[in-house]
Structure formats: structure tokens, C-alpha cells
Amino acid sequence: MASVSSNTSSTPLLIVGLGNPGAEYEGTRHNIGAMVLDELAGDLGTGFSVNRKVNARVAETRVGDRRVILATPRSFMNLSGGPVKALTGYYGPGQVLVVHDELDLDPGTVKLKHGGGLNGHNGLRDIAKSLGTQDFDRIQVGIGRPPGRMSPASYVLKPFAKAERADLPVTLADAADLATAVARGEAA
Question: Is the pTM of this model over 0.90?
């Protein structure tokens, strides 16, 4: 299975947006990856359906000549590896791009990262363990650090503050645009 960067139109691209399932987690910082995928699906004119074989919501589409599979695992964030591994097995080897929340970036910051460290992110850690490599691409969506002495675990599971919600549409659009640029081979 190839999960390394590859921008050729013949290589399928699996874009995975991380989050937690269930209404109680909608609108939380930890679900920004899944929120980006909803934005991206809307931009590409496609919708999700549940694929129980891979335990994910999935949409198949094309960006130019490239086959693109959008997915949000139906597992909890810390167990994202199983669905991602199942997705790569079901849809075939190709480039993997994971969209996730990032504490070490200011809110609204969107950054493309190729492989490297996992920054203590348990969802990424589980994906790396399941794929047997950290060499997959990521779109990091900044959520900033928790205020005061709030634990990071509590912070990521809280809804966005009012001021953050005002800027959220721009952040989601920026991240979706970056994912589209990756699919087109325009982002490096």
C-alpha cells in the first residue's frame, strides 16, 4: 500500500476528515476535520453515504482526471486507524491526506504537512500505527491552545467560542480549497 505523497492523476487520493461521531460532538474543535470534509463535499457537488465495510461515511468523486474518495470515519477520533486502513484496502492504494485539528497552530491557520511527527495527536497516532507509517499527508487546521489551565483533552471537546464560530466559514473554505489544490497537484 502506498500512502506516501503522490500527485499524479492516475493515483487515487483518499481525503480523510477526523472527528468524533454523534450529535454531542458536532461543532466541537476536535471535529473540524469532518467539518472540512462536509465543506469539500459541498464544493465538489457530492454527498456522503455510509459504507459499513470501512466504518466510514464516504463520497467518491473526481477532481479533474483524478479519482478522489472523501471519508469521515464513524469511529471515535482515537480509533481512526482501523477505518483508514480499511479505506485504503477497499479503495486501493494511493495518496492519503488526513484533515485534522491542530493545537499548535493559531485558530484559522491552515497548513499542509508531508509526513513527520504526530504532535501528540491520538487520531494521527492510531492512523500511523494502522498504516505502519507516519509518511502520509495532513492538512492541519489550527484551533489554538486552551486558555489558562484547561486541559487540551477538555478544550478539543468543547464547542467553538462565539468569536471562533464567526471566522469558521473562512477557515473551512480555506482548508477545503487546500484539499482541492492537493487533488489537482497544485499544492506542495
Answer: yes
